[in-house]
Amino acid sequence: MNLLDAVIVLGLASFFAIRASMSAVYYALLSASALAGYIFGLALAGLVTGRVESALAKGLTALGLMLGLAAVGAAGGHRIGKRAKMRLIMSRSFRADKLLAWPCKIVAALLVIILLSQTLIYVPILGVQFEAQGSTVLTASNKLVQSEPLNRLAAHIDPGEFRNLHLAYDPNPLTYNNISGAGEFQAAIDRAAPSIVKISGRTCVGLGFGSGFVAAPGLVVTNAHVISGASSIYISDHRGAYPATPLVIDTTYDIAVLYSPFITDPPLRFGAQSPGAGGSSITLGYPYAGDLQFFRGAILSKHYRSSHNALSAENTLVLSSSLGPGSSGGPVLDQNGEVIGVNDAGVGTGGGGNLIAIQGRIAQQLVKKAKAKVWPSSTKFCDVSPHFY
Predict the structure, then answer these.
(1) Global pTM?
(2) What are the pLDDT digits (tens) for 50-63?
(3) How many other β-carbons are positioned within 10 Å of the β-carbon of residue 309?
């Protein structure tokens, strides 16, 4: 729970504590008026922000129009609802109106939470987006109500401004300059490349970098140590960079699953089983925070056991070569382009040593856990674990 959660909880507590207007008609009119004002503000924002250059100005304009007109609509609904209530008091339907008041009040509160989640998470103001994605209440709402008409309407009005914003810190999309010459693996790499992403985070000790891959709509797999101690996390793909929040952080297997509603790249498939010793594989990532790189290596038979977590011969692969720092969290693919492992640790210096990869089935299990989870996880700011890469 963050500061935004505290504000929402206090606001809801105050809302439910007020008994002066316990009328179903009152809350129905309040909700309908607020929703009408919000939709009008959304449509107006789509027209106005196209002429605004600054991302911050776009965000402030859209935020002001959507929430501002929703508030104006709610104020109008409040006045009309109070008059309607006074008329109901004189009628025989007043008792039924009072009985239905609580359900209508709950619906009104849920509507406010949904509108906040769909506004604060998508409006391009970095601090607001991170605070919203770190909110348990808003993240849960956004995951549970992903395909509601308002979001589709925003994308239809202006898809370039509401869903595909490039953040100011890294406005340039990723490029793939070094992924040719992979022989029989080339087709698999070409298919997988758009779904392999770069992870960066602002930590208490500076900037951290790593790699990752899209494993489900809106979900990206990386290493837990890549985001350790991060106060803000970014995912960069071939369209730009977006804020993200962790849903699962498993330090036991050094896997993290990140969530961002902006990630729409096709997910990579997990392989049914990992090839045995002597088989070939391709590992991909962004070493040294540069361009996408790959290395074709053999799966070795030597065993590996970690002294700081549960990684062992039963849940890892040992590959003949690593890419180097920055490739942590990238996928290990078989010839079909399916994920059989996740880059974790290099044994040796630079890119010349062996690579320890976590088996794909471990990541697949944690992705299933992330799909069922609706609230974010904390990265424990400044609690920095040992960094392999």
Answers:
(1) 0.80
(2) 777 776 777 788 88
(3) 17
